[in-house]
Amino acid sequence: RSLMGALDLNRRIDSARIVEIGQVPLAQNGYSAATAATFFDGLKERLQGNPFLAGVATSASQGGMGAGGALTIDGVSRKFPSFVAFRHVDDNYFSTMRMRILRGRHFSADDLPGAALVGIVSESFARMIGSGSEVLGQHIVMVFGGKLDIEIVGVVEDVFTDIRDAEPLALYMPMAQQDQPPANRALVFRAADDVGAARREVITSVRQLDSRLQLPDGITLDERLLRQMAPQQFGLFVLASLGAIALLLTALGTYVLAETMAVMRT
Description:
By secondary structure, the protein is of the alpha+beta class. Helices cover 35% and strands 27% of the residues. It has helices at residues 2-6, 33-47, 93-97, 123-130, 195-209, 221-228, 230-265, and strands at residues 18-23, 53-65, 70-73, 76-79, 84-89, 101-104, 118-122, 139-143, 147-156, 169-174, 186-191, 219-220. Strands 1, 2, 3, 4, 5, 6, 7, 8, 9, 10, 11 and 12 form a twelve-stranded mixed sheet that branches. Helix 2 (33-47) packs across helix 5. The mean pLDDT is 89.
């Protein structure tokens, strides 16, 4: 039941059709941050309206803060019991992932370099720091390549990508506000129906823009969770095997007992 329940963590977003392709290796092929941004804009424009795709977005993981780390929120140091992910995302990310903005707002066209830094936190993050109060307008101060003061402008639905995290803690920041946007980004897309066909469309479009690029294999969110659950799957296989052996022994024992009773009666 636990194994099957884990696969339903992201049922609302239909995680079986959401695919993430790791780092698209643009930096290794001579792209700068500016030319990489042009490449991804061109790719999204090329894939827009493709019947096999329901959405395409890019993101850049900025690592995160380990369990037991602390962030200063409105002048108060707060410790977190589990990993907090930091991620920069583009304007299409939440719609592609089907993650609803629960409170506050989405990133806007005004969230540009030089403007006040803003962030959107996951529902679990907001619940942990809010303690029943509103988190919108609170400021997260942290040192991340420099001192950052990030205002929380929205709360978004949780998405589970690691079976070890019962409460996914995440801080999302707009890609446009990065001082030095990375040339390499993760490519995320949601298939309209057939995941394999959607994957082929994305790979073909990337190759048409630059034939040198070799993309890593993209996996769905469900496949990612299943890979993390290899020990549980092995345990399930062992228990099922033992159950089959017990059933076979029971059937053989019943047959031998019935045959012995028949011989005795004869």
